[in-house]
């Protein structure tokens, strides 16, 4: 008698049948699971991992593109804001410069009658270089329209600076706050002897003690008493302009003193050859007397 688990002559057929059944089951299992070896499985896993990495990369790319789009929109909005600001600055600067040009043009109408002409930029630009630094490119790959506008704005500011400096030496405006014109520039009848005479300035009647101001910066060349003028101040403003203030009640400045535009230099009075309280005001350009009222009205 053989061992229980080993086939014997009597049960061979039974074992064969069981073996066939087991073999069939193995075939079914391998057929269902698409049986593959380890190398094939590794390759498939590598492909699946690559696909997952690709999907993750695509999602990250989409997120980056979205962020870039938001940044580009923000930059575009900022550039539009910058463009608007630059245009406003250019407009304000150009407007101020045009006001100064208009005043200078009015003055030149009078000066041309005397054979003179005032160019505010003649001295500031002649044989000189400078101004605001304007880079060749404001930024690499930048907005060309914005760069062009920035250059226009910088140029307007640059020229406005020249005109603002020039206007400081041009005696525009009224040297006394309140006045009435009691004697104009040019030919007149002398108030003392009633004879025909030449008036080199204008007489601005005003209350005694009212402040007299210099309408331009400069340097005092005379502060004292002169025959016929009483207490008098003379100021050299440079660029050919000089002013005279006569019949003063008081003098606040000294010869050689530097004067700022709008600075009070004395008081209205009636000293010297005068019939009453007033300011005798003269303006000279290039040694030629010109009508001060043109400068007063051109402010």
Outline:
The chain has 299 residues and is of the alpha+beta class. The protein has helices at 12-32, 38-113, 122-125, 144-167, 292-297; strands spanning 180-183, 186-189, 196-199, 202-205, 211-213, 218-226, 230-238, 241-251, 258-259, 264-268, 278-285, 288-290.
Layout of helices and strands, plus pairs?
Layout: H1 12-32, H2 38-113, H3 122-125, H4 144-167, E1 180-183, E2 186-189, E3 196-199, E4 202-205, E5 211-213, E6 218-226, E7 230-238, E8 241-251, E9 258-259, E10 264-268, E11 278-285, E12 288-290, H5 292-297
Antiparallel strand pairs: 1-4, 2-3, 4-11, 5-10, 6-7, 6-9, 7-8, 8-10, 8-11, 11-12
Q: What is the CA-CA span between the terminal residues?
A: 140 Å
Number of helices: 5
CATH superfamily name of the domain at 180-297? Glucose Permease (Domain IIA)
Strand content: 15-25%
Helix residue percentage: 40-55%
SSE order: HHHHEEEEEEEEEEEEH
The tally of strands reads 12
List segments where confidence is low: pLDDT < 50 over at least 5 consecutive residues: none
CATH architecture heading of the domain at 180-297: Distorted Sandwich
Classification by helices and strands: alpha+beta
How much is the average pLDDT? 84
- Just give the CATH class of the domain at 180-297: Mainly Beta
What is the CATH third-level topology name of the domain at 180-297?
A: Glucose Permease (Domain IIA)
What is the radius of gyration computed over CA atoms, rounded to a whole number of angstroms?
48 Å
Large-scale geometry:
rod-shaped
| Main sheet characteristics | 10 strands, antiparallel
């Amino acid at each position: 008698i053989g061992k229980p688990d080993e086939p014997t002559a009597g049960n061979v057929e039974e074992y064969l049948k069981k073996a066939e059944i087991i073999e069939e089951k193995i075939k079914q299992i391998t057929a269902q699971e698409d049986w593959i070896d380890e190398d094939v499985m590794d390759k498939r896993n590598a492909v699946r991992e690559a696909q997952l990495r690709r999907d993750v990369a695509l999602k990250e790319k989409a997120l980056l593109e979205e962020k870039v789009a938001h940044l580009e929109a923000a930059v575009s909005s900022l550039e539009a804001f910058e463009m608007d600001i630059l245009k406003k600055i250019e407009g304000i600067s150009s407007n101020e410069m045009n006001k100064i040009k208009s005043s200078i043009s009015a003055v030149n109408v009078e000066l041309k009658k005397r054979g003179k002409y005032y160019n505010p930029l003649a001295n500031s630009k002649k044989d000189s270089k400078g101004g605001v630094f304007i880079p060749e490119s404001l930024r690499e790959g930048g907005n060309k329209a914005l760069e062009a506008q920035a250059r226009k704005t910088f140029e307007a500011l640059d020229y406005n600076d020249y005109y603002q400096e020039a206007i400081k030496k041009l005696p525009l405006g009224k040297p006394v706050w309140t006045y009435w014109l009691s004697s104009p520039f040019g030919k007149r009848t002398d108030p003392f002897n009633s004879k025909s005479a030449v008036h080199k300035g204008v007489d601005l009647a005003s209350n005694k003690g009212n402040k007299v101001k210099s309408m331009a910066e400069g340097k005092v060349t005379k502060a004292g008493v002169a025959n016929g003028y009483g207490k008098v101040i003379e100021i050299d403003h440079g660029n050919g302009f000089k002013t005279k203030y006569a019949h003063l009640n008081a003098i606040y400045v000294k010869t050689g003193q530097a004067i700022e535009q709008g600075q009070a230099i004395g008081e209205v009075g009636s000293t010297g050859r005068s019939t009453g309280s007033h300011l005798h005001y003269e303006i000279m350009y290039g040694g030629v007397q010109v009508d001060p009222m043109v400068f007063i009205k051109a402010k």
